[in-house]
Amino acid sequence: MRQVLFILNDPPYGTERSYNGLRLAGATAKREGTEVRVFLMGDAAACAKRGQKTPEGFYNLERMLKGVTTRHGQVGVCGTCMDARGIAEAELAEGCRRSTLEELTDWTLGADQVLVF
């Protein structure tokens, strides 16, 4: 099993870096024999906020994260970054969970490939 880790740093909207990272993560998660992990840190922690409402036809990062988790991908959100932005664990989108730098370290060392957006 090939493990690919995506680390996202940018906010969910206003820049397309997190959007593009999740596009690639979702496409990678569809591949047989590939395990995808996504770690959201810094302003990217807001990507996992539950209840995002975007205009019709506009991308929605909450739905994109669900596309990763429904394919057995894991999404961790930096707890320190959540606290700094006032995001409670109960506010996280389905399939996303509070995580730690320690877990990110384990994921990084265990990954075959690490992509940073």
Describe, in plain words, how this protein is organized in 3D.
The longest helix is centred in the first third of the chain and has 13 residues, at 17-29. With 117 residues, this protein is α/β, with parallel strands linked by helices. The protein has a single domain (2-116), classed as DsrEFH-like (Hypothetical Protein Ychn, Chain: A, 3-Layer(aba) Sandwich). It has helices spanning 17-29, 61-69, 79-84, 101-110, and strands at 2-8, 34-40, 74-78, 96-99, 113-116. The two termini are 23 Å apart. The mean pLDDT is 97. The chain has 4 helices and 5 strands, in the order E-H-E-H-E-H-E-H-E. Helix 1 (17-29) packs parallel to helix 2 (61-69). It comes from Geothrix rubra. This is DsrE/DsrF-like family protein. It holds the Pfam family DsrE.
List the helices and strands and how they pair.
Elements: E1 2-8, H1 17-29, E2 34-40, H2 61-69, E3 74-78, H3 79-84, E4 96-99, H4 101-110, E5 113-116
Parallel strand pairs: 1-2, 1-5, 2-3, 3-4
Helix pairs in contact: 1-2
